[in-house]
Amino acid sequence: MKIPQMVVTEFRRLTRSPMAILALLALGIVPLLYGGLYLWANQNPYGKLNEIPVALVVEDTGAEGPSGFTNYGEQIADELVKDGTFAWHEVSAAEAQAGVDDSSFDFSVTIPADFSEQLVSSSGSEPQQATVILTTNDANGYLASTIGETAIKEIQRQIVATVNEQAATQFLGALATIRSNLVTAVDGAGKLVAGAAEAQAGATALASGTEQLATGSAALRDGLGTLAGGAAALPDAASRLATGAGQVAAGNAEIARIGDEIGAVTQGVVNDLPAVRADIAARLSAAGLSEAEVAAALAALDQIGARIGDGNARVQDAVGKLDLLASGSAELAVGTGELAEQAPALAQGAQEAANGSAALADGAGQAASGSAALSAGLDTLHGGLESLAGGLSGGVEQIPESTEQSRQNQAQTIANPVAIDTSQVAAAGTYGAGLAPFFIALAAWIGIYALFLIVKPVSNRAITALHSPMKITVAGWLTPALIGTLQMAGLFFVVAVALGFNFSNPLASYGIMALSSMVFTAIILALNVWLGSVGQFIGLVMMVLQLVSAGGTFPWQTLPGPLAGLHHVLPMSFTVDAIRQLMYGGDVSRAWADLGVLATWGAIAFVLAALGVARMTHFRTLRDLEPSLIG
């Protein structure tokens, strides 16, 4: 009997009655039902989140902030409803609680009454963290709670972005005001520097002048000290002078009196001289002298009279001078008396002037010292003001000039500084497409496993008639393998056409699916040949182990150690990886490596199956004679 004949005989056995055909069809479509229905149900669940009912409770009463009254709760609620990620229902707190309890809502989000107040507090002295309340109920579905936790994080991100943008806008506005004030301060500092330079020059001149003042006031102090020393003896001297002047005035007055008497006598003589001349002339004439003799006598007399006149003139002049002398000495006596009277006050004033000049000298010295310190201080002030002006100018340069639009753009960037630009080496597209490789591989195993419920691993008739283990093994493997490739063709049609999942390499993807089905056939065949129904049970155990270790849902790195080790050994892991690479457009070389591992598994399983068949052709065991407890 040849291999095709054995395959045809097996197919005839499987289709010998309507019930047999129905059983074959039922088991044959198991992969389509399992893989197709599951992937259909999970084709794109994230695209229908807007059908998930969620309660939204807004109790926020608003708050007065730096920019006026704001109700952040209402703003966020409006954004959530407008975004439409979920089927939001704005209800009361009691309705939300009842809805989460009775599954009317999958979860609820509550914005409390003090939400805005807590957000606004960040600009005050007692900042508080705002709270948004998420209420979940795992009895409504654990994934619903997980989605709720993810949603609340997105809400938190939106809130932070909104608040950060407003805070950044206020900060940048204040910074622009600071920059404007700094510009004004720079101008003022420049004027201060100029004024300080002038003040420094004036202080230098003041220091020089006060130094000269100190020198002059010291000299004045010394001179007035000498004057005060001399003025101290002035009252006694003035008193003595006044006494002497009074005596001189009295003597001069007596002399003037005598002179006046002499002047009166001489003036009387001069006045009496014409009468005396006339009398002498008369007497001489009476005496009988001739006119010539009388004239001669009178001529001599006239000479004497002339001298008397000259003497009288000199006497009168002297009398006048004596009178002036007496008058001046009297005035001198009066003046020296007044001087004597004023001399004590003059001496006291000189002493006071000396004392004042001493104080002036001390003050001038202090002024000189202070003006020198002022000059030095103004020099330091000028340097400090130059540093201040430079610092203010540098501060202005550090704060960029901005406009209202640029500040708004900056605030938006600060609020959301990082944009995620996703670069995908290979993309699944949807959640269902992401799960497809895993469920295709699992469906391939389940399909072959189910077939061996009705397909005989090997033909006892062929074992009895033939002694060619290889032919018997090929025939036993080929029948379920052919059905398995048909199963994969139907599943590929469902996934690629009916569900519309994209395959970057469709032919290669189907090739891996068909090869995996053939490999799984060889593995389950070997288990059945060696262990019978126990081997079939072990095939079920292997399916469970591969279900959890293939890394079809979560990354295999999250598995416990033993299961992570199985991930690198069991064949379904390599089927999943190969389909991912070919379906998503990933690394084809990895798919070739996975194909090599699968081929190795298939070859080893086929050899083991052939060895089992060879044993059966030469030996009979108790299992061959007695029915299996499991089968």
Automatic annotation (TrEMBL):
<keyword id="KW-0812">Transmembrane</keyword>
<feature type="domain" description="ABC-2 type transporter transmembrane">
    <location>
        <begin position="402"/>
        <end position="611"/>
    </location>
</feature>
<feature type="transmembrane region" description="Helical">
    <location>
        <begin position="476"/>
        <end position="501"/>
    </location>
</feature>
<keyword id="KW-0472">Membrane</keyword>
<dbReference type="GO" id="GO:0140359">
    <property type="term" value="F:ABC-type transporter activity"/>
</dbReference>
<feature type="transmembrane region" description="Helical">
    <location>
        <begin position="21"/>
        <end position="41"/>
    </location>
</feature>
<dbReference type="Pfam" id="PF12698">
    <property type="entry name" value="ABC2_membrane_3"/>
</dbReference>
<protein>
    <submittedName>
        <fullName>Putative membrane protein</fullName>
    </submittedName>
</protein>
<dbReference type="InterPro" id="IPR051328">
    <property type="entry name" value="T7SS_ABC-Transporter"/>
</dbReference>
<feature type="transmembrane region" description="Helical">
    <location>
        <begin position="591"/>
        <end position="614"/>
    </location>
</feature>
<dbReference type="InterPro" id="IPR013525">
    <property type="entry name" value="ABC2_TM"/>
</dbReference>
<feature type="transmembrane region" description="Helical">
    <location>
        <begin position="431"/>
        <end position="455"/>
    </location>
</feature>
<dbReference type="InterPro" id="IPR017501">
    <property type="entry name" value="Phage_infect_YhgE_C"/>
</dbReference>
<feature type="transmembrane region" description="Helical">
    <location>
        <begin position="537"/>
        <end position="556"/>
    </location>
</feature>
<dbReference type="InterPro" id="IPR011049">
    <property type="entry name" value="Serralysin-like_metalloprot_C"/>
</dbReference>
<dbReference type="InterPro" id="IPR023908">
    <property type="entry name" value="xxxLxxG_rpt"/>
</dbReference>
<keyword id="KW-1133">Transmembrane helix</keyword>
<dbReference type="InterPro" id="IPR017500">
    <property type="entry name" value="Phage_infect_YhgE_N"/>
</dbReference>
<feature type="transmembrane region" description="Helical">
    <location>
        <begin position="507"/>
        <end position="530"/>
    </location>
</feature>
<dbReference type="GO" id="GO:0016020">
    <property type="term" value="C:membrane"/>
</dbReference>
<feature type="domain" description="ABC-2 type transporter transmembrane">
    <location>
        <begin position="29"/>
        <end position="161"/>
    </location>
</feature>
